[in-house]
């Protein structure tokens, strides 16, 4: 009878020496964090040091603070249309909304065709570099500066505001439209080209239906940005609208009752706009990033 062999100790295989790993990412992260904290502290110290130079001599801070609180109370607790009618303010708000809508619509149309020349899935490398560099240059300059530039060329008025807002909208939307197209799988597009599908049928029947939800959400976000810019350039470019009314009420009439009414009208439009924009970002953009 063969008995079971007792459990024997096997030969332990020789293990390779393991080199200690340096956690470079942790060190870099700590270095980056220290840099950020250092910059924040420098800005705080600079701000605290320059505040005394901003306050004019002889100003009673207690009285000034009390006056500020009183003005805020007048604006938000007692709003009224004093120097103009409520209907005129609503009409000015509609004018600013129309300016934002028009510039967004025109910018989206131009941006779609330019984005086809900036997409890595559709255009050659040399053309992509040219288009993306030009659009980056336009985006680097704030919208208000473009409006002022066109105001010098065309004169103050709605024309300069429309062209300036549209110009920056095109540059912004070209980037996001091209990024949305680049998220499509290259293999699928290459296979369709190999099957003989032309460029425009590929764009109209494959690319556009696929990226349309992302296009719509980005365009709506740009509309939200353009409305804020339309309010800002209302007085700067003489484009009118609710921004011009706000400038007149605060800078000329010093009527805080009317300023409060204008602020409430702007909030009545921007708060629902922000809610819709947030829902679109959650539904489409975040889903596309997964």
UniProtKB/TrEMBL annotation:
Matches recorded under SUPFAM superfamilies: MetI-like (SSF161098)
| Record keyword Cell wall biogenesis/degradation present | no
Q: Species lineage, top-down?
A: Bacteria, Bacillati, Bacillota, Bacilli, Lactobacillales
What species is this protein from? Answer: Lentilactobacillus parafarraginis F0439
Q: What is its main location?
A: membrane
List localization entries. Cell membrane
**What is the designated name of this protein?**
Putative phosphonate ABC transporter, permease protein PhnE
Question: Which Gene3D superfamilies does this entry report, sorted A to Z?
Answer: MetI-like
Please list the residue ranges annotated as the ABC transmembrane type-1 domain.
93-277
Q: Respond yes or no to whether keyword Nucleotidyltransferase is given for this record.
A: no
Q: Name one GO biological process term.
A: transmembrane transport
Its keywords, alphabetically, are: Cell membrane, Membrane, Transmembrane, Transmembrane helix, Transport
Q: Which GO terms describe its cellular component?
A: plasma membrane
CDD domains, alphabetized: TM_PBP2
| Protein family membership | Belongs to the binding-protein-dependent transport system permease family.
Q: How does it sit in the membrane?
A: Multi-pass membrane protein
Matching PROSITE patterns = ABC_TM1
- A Pfam family that the UniProt record links to this protein: BPD_transp_1
Q: Which branch of life, at top level?
A: Bacteria
List where the protein spans the membrane. Answer: 35-55, 92-116, 137-170, 190-215, 227-247, 259-280
